[in-house]
Amino acid sequence: MIPKVARLFRYQRLLSQQNRNMGVYYKSGALKAMPPVNAFGILGVFCTMIPGILLGAIISKNIASFLEENDLFVPEDEDDD
């Protein structure tokens, strides 16, 4: 049992050393270079969201009309008096 526990701790220590090396600093203590940044900003957000929302609306409209044509789902009007 003890060799298994020792092996587990050794493996955990190895993983923590690997994760530490993947950070911002090199082993020598120097800073790593800054990764490249895509500066699309708010324009990129809108160019992604608007087509996605429109495509989702078109698909849902087509599915709703298909369900109504085939009498699979017909919304009923409710009177809330």
From TrEMBL:
Q: Which InterPro entries match?
A: MCU_reg
Location comes to: Mitochondrion inner membrane
Q: Topology with regard to the membrane?
A: Single-pass membrane protein
Short name of one Pfam family: DDDD
UniProt keywords, alphabetically? Calcium, Calcium transport, Ion transport, Membrane, Mitochondrion, Mitochondrion inner membrane, Transit peptide, Transmembrane, Transmembrane helix, Transport
Q: So what family is this one in?
A: Belongs to the SMDT1/EMRE family.
- The protein here is known as Essential MCU regulator, mitochondrial
Task: Tell me the organism.
Answer: Chironomus riparius
